[in-house]
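Thread: Newbie trying to understand structure tokens

Hi all, I'm a second-year student working on a class project, and my supervisor (Dr. K.) asked me to get a predicted structure for one chain before our next meeting. I've only ever worked with sequences, so writing a 3D structure as a token string is new to me. If someone could post the tokens and maybe explain what I'm looking at, I'd be very grateful. Here's the chain:
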Amino acid sequence: MKDDIDKIVTLSEEDSDAEFQKYLLFSNDQLTTVITNGALKGKKVGAIIKSIFKGCPSNSTEGSNRRLLVYQHCIPLCESGDLQTEVAADIIGLLMLETHTLPGPSLAKLASLFVEAIKVGKMGSGKSLELFPTVLTALSACEALSYGKGELSGEEYKKQLINSLCSSRWDPQCVIHLTTMFRDVPLSSEELQFLVEKVLRMFTKLDLQEIPPLVYQLLLLSAKGCKKQVLDGIICYFKEQDARQEEEQKHGESLDLEVQSIPQDQLRHVEGTVILHIVFAIRLDHELGREFLKNFKTSYGDLCPFSVALLLSVARIQRYEEQVFDLLKGAIIKSFKDEQLQQGSKYLQDLLPGHCRVDHMILDTVKNSVFGWDHVTQGLVQLGFSLMDAFGPKPGPFGKTTEGASTIARTPTQQACKLGGQVLLQGFKMHEPIRGEILEQVLNRLVTKTASPVNHYLDLFSDIVVSAPMILLESSSKVTETFDHLSYLPLTTVQGLLKAVQPLLKVSMSLKDALIIVLRKAMFSSQLDGRKSAVTGFLLLLKNFKVLGSLASSQCSQVASSSQIQVDVHSRYNSAANEAFCLEILSSLRRCLGQQADVRLMLYEGFYDVLRRNSQLASSIMQTLFSQLKRYYEPEQDLLPPVKLEPCITALGDQVYLQEPLAHLLSCTVHCLLWLQNMRRSAHPIANDSDEEEEEEGYQSELQTMLESVTRRMMKSELEDFELDKSAEFSMGSSVGVKNNIYAVLVMGVYEILMEYNFIKANYSKSRFEELMELFNRYHKLSEILKEKSGKGRTPSNKTPRSLLSLGFISTLLTVLFRDSTQSREEALSVLRLSGEFVRYAVNVAVQKIQQLEETGHTDGPDGQNTDRTFRFLCDMTSVLMWRYTNIPSAVEDGGKKEKRSSLSLLCLEGLLRIFTTCQQRFPDKMSQLLSTMDISEDDAEPDDGNAMEMNFFYIRQFQRALFTQLSGGEEEFNSKEAQLLVSILAVLSRQLKPASQQFVQMITWTVKICKETSFEDSAFSKGLLSLLFSLHVLYKSPVSLLLELCQDIHSQLGDIDQDVEVEKQSHFAIVNMKTASTVTLLVLSQVDRVLDEVDWLIAKKKSQAASDTSVCEGATQTAGQQNPIEKAMTLQLGTLLTALNELVQTALLPGASTVTLLRELSRTYTTLTTLVKYYIQVCASQPGALPARLEKLVKLSGSHLTPQCYSFITYAQSGEMSVGGADDKKKKKRNEVNTAASAKLLRETKAIPNVIFSIEQYEKFLITLSKKSKVNLMQYMKLSTSRDFRINAASLDAVLQEQDGTQETNESQEAEEPKQKKRKQ
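---
Reply by user tm_fold:
Sure, no problem. This is what the structure looks like when written as tokens:
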């Protein structure tokens, strides 16, 4: 055999071709054996094949057959796996070179051989597949080949082959090889699409580990086209895998599945690799990148955790960065907005139950990125910050922060901002490499964004501190750097920042030292804010570094989250050091007592909290306060007044300023003293002697004596003693007025604090309460003068200065005034109860405090910052106010006299309304707790969670009864203010009801009944009641039918625009009458706007669906059939809406807001109709003849009912304005005023009128297009309007010209007459 090989090679090298051909005439078997042996030994095989080809010329049939035999033998030989790789490669290379010499029939046989081998799965190693493309290319060049009984061109034959190949079953092993092979095959676009679909279907049959190389090959293949299909397929595959994996995890726990079909970590690693491949491909092929992004621009419904990760990785390519983040931000905010829209409307919930949550996907991506997705983490950080920057709170006017730190993200923008924070926090916890960057960026923003609010960054920073304090200590240098900027930052930022780092200070000495140095410098800052920051910081330190032996005051709950760090402060550095440290801080703080009022104020407000947390500092704090108070105290017992007001003010030029907030100083001293006495009493019931005790007793008794003396002398002091009497000047324009104002506020504050102190000290003794009333009378007299004088100024300001009573005291006071029935206290309390002014003052202060809580989230005075205690006081006040309102009817207390001021019942109601709204905003999860404490029935039964809803409904019924009583009394008895408050309370409470519950249905039927039966002519009340009805109705079902009835009522009340037409009298809702019709019209139109919003949203949803359906052609017809309910619902909504608007357009509305709004809504309605028509144009393009009969009806309705009426309404609106101008001559002056007003309105309206006309014409323009597309004549329903006819009428022109020759007067009368004529024509 060896000889054969050598002989073949030698002969082929010589020139005698004939001899060589003769030698090669041995049988096929011998030939194949020669090749096999040569190949197995790996020697000279290339030379052998070359020689054989040389010896078998392709022009003879014998030669071609021989060549074909070599091919047929070599291909399986290479696939067998017996050959060395290089040898196989050599053989294939040689065969490729000679392919084009084979004749057509041989090529056809060869191609069929390949196809058969692939079908039966013999192409395992895929080595010989490289030859297939060459064969196919050669084939397509052939002229004609026999196929079956006829013949085909080579190109057609190739198509048949590819078709049969893609339709057959592929062995999973050779999918990758085949995909690689097809890269070299010239394919038409249909063939490519067919092939890509086949490969994508094979994904599920492959092992996970084989997916990345296959994706790589597919991406290379996508250079030929089908980019969108390839990307969609890959993303879709991973979306399904993720979903399956999640399912398994959910059910795995319940089914005890030991084996997962997809191990999570493996799946994530594969996803990571695939993402890298795709990003790499996009870097090289920008067309692919464009296709990828275009995919998500239409709708966010296609997003999934995998595609989010992919987008974030693509964002690392600079040219796509901005696009990707804009796209993601847009998707997030749109998702939140859609969710909000759906939650607010039962109609939409019924039509589209599911909702795709982009925020969940993004958080899933963060979770998944743990598996080594470093290429995604950078994008996540960027996304987090761009969300927080874009959607964080915005500065209000003059750079003020608008919202107090609201606890709950309600609006879509707030939710998006919160999502950004969650992404960063989770990222910080999971990925070490990005921690430094996140921290640095957060701190940078805190320092640089001084103009806008930074609460969201503060929240994030404090979450980071709580979740990973030890990690933060590693980069404490960054925190120290931030401290250097403290004195330049806004006060709120400083407070938030220090509160956030507070847990770290206990663990890290260096941080604490750095902070103290900064605060000491800030103490001497030239900026007022800098000094305030220093006070804030020092107070915070005092609160949190406990001196050992401080009473563990059980009442003071520790607000700060230091419990996260289990460090016993005292074991690290002893309490002596702590004490020294605290005393040193106190000495720094004493310097503030010589600074501006604002700085002192902060100090006084902070001392009480410090004392409660760190009671060992009591003597130092008390002595500081005491010595400060002595400066303003008149020690001579006979002198009046007992306080010196002169040193409390300072003058600068001709301006007078407050220097010492004396009332606050007194308040702080009193509260600290009371708290200490309380603590001592509970800690040592039996007195023990010690020096310290004596020292404390010393200043305590001295202070008490001082307070008694001040009280005694303040009762005797007349207003003249303070230079404040009725004749004094209080205008804020002059320095004297300002000084008197400051004095008055200080004196009133002192009176208030003495009232609180004496109430607590009185222990329900009658004589002490009489003294208290004396104090109150003095206070009241002064506050009345102040009110009266400030009211006389140009701007009456009824704003009473903020009360200094503490929330706890007010809550106690209300309880004893209204609910305390203890026999022994009866006599003393009657002193207070008999004074109507005092009771009223107490309720007023309560309302004021609750309002402050609602706006800022905390109140002044002790415990104001402590949310738990604040909530407890709220509960107490609620039950008292509720009891007072329900048990004493307002009719009794007014005593027949009609007062201007609101009655006590009204105040109680206002208080309740404010409490409910505050609770819903600030403590949303505690609402049921608040309601359950309200009803303290005789047997004190505690309700459980199960009947929280029942409880809520019980109160709703109480307030319903109260409102019903109001309404059944008749118009004279009716108190509009009270009724409005009741409606507002019902609105707040009904938000707690679940829309599916029985109670909700009862609530809505009750509201409808009241609206139908109440006929009071009070527009403010009717506005509140109808707003309540709409807000409930939207959650129950679509409000269009309700709107139609209301429009009919308005029409019948106000009459028709054509005075000759008699409107059919109908009244569905008695609440609509002549007085309230305009208000009701505006409310109805705002609801119309809302309905149009929903319809627009649905059309947009359908449009994006139709767009994605056309790309997947098979499903299009079927989904159109299925999705019909949405189209039907939209058409019905618009139909009812058009009927309702048809009623309004014929109504003689008063010129003004309602006319303008109606015109605006009309143009909006036509715009929505146009959008719907455009949608159907799109549908008709993809499915001809798909125009529903319902749409035709809708078009007919708009053409016959609405458009003509619109034009007559426009004429009416214009003529209505003119006729106002032509009023009676006697009222000349009035007419001029009306005229200017009318012309101003006309200017406003003229803009609305062209808008309506333009939108009608746009609508008709697209109707023409749709008529052409759908072959249905929709324009037969449209009548061209006459009022749009701008041709010049020659006859009337002549007539006018002739008139002008006549007298002036006739001309004038003609002009005034003209609009009316126009109207009659109509």
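A couple of things are worth pointing out once you decode it. The chain is about 70% helix and 0% strand. Residues 777 and 803 are 16 Å apart (CA to CA). Feel free to ask follow-ups in this thread.
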